[in-house]
Design goal:
Radius of gyration: 19 Å
Number of helices: 4
Largest sheet: 5 strands, antiparallel
Helix content: 40-55%
Number of strands: 5
Number of domains: 2
Structural class: alpha+beta
Oligomer: single chain
Shape: elongated
Strand content: 15-25%
Order of helices and strands: HHHEEEEEH
Distance between the termini: 64 Å
């Protein structure tokens, strides 16, 4: 995977350009031709410290780019002090939290659907 940028180079390019998701997209455009993807993914759930993070593949592993603020033009604004490589164990925590949040959202959406079905039935019977 030496085609991937080293962590320090990606971080330097990202924050020299402004440190936003829009800048990350520009930095990672180089991967689209070879991989069909920019090789970064959004994780829009708080990790307990930040409002969300992005995961980016780099030569050394998976880089975590945290954010608290979303701007209308630049999108997520990354917190440079929180940038770090993550371990397999930490990724496991992210996966567990994602599954929990997904289950909770699905349960709420099922409840909404049942409520709407009952409401539509009642309206059609009236």
């Amino acid at each position: 995977m030496d085609v991937l940028l080293p962590k320090d180079e990606l971080v330097e390019q990202l924050f020299d350009a402004g440190g936003s998701e829009a800048n990350l997209s520009e930095v990672c455009d180089r991967y689209v031709k070879q991989y069909g993807n920019q090789l970064y993914w959004s994780y829009p759930i708080t990790d307990g410290e930040y409002n969300g993070v992005y995961f980016v593949l780099v030569q050394e592993g998976v880089l975590c780019l945290p954010y608290d603020v979303i701007d209308g033009e630049e999108y997520e604004l990354f917190e440079q002090d929180g940038v770090r490589l993550i371990s397999a164990e930490e990724m496991g925590y992210f996966i567990s939290d994602w599954k929990r949040a997904s289950r909770e959202l699905e349960e709420v959406m099922d409840s909404f659907m049942n409520y709407l079905k009952a409401r539509e039935r009642n309206e059609s019977e009236a």
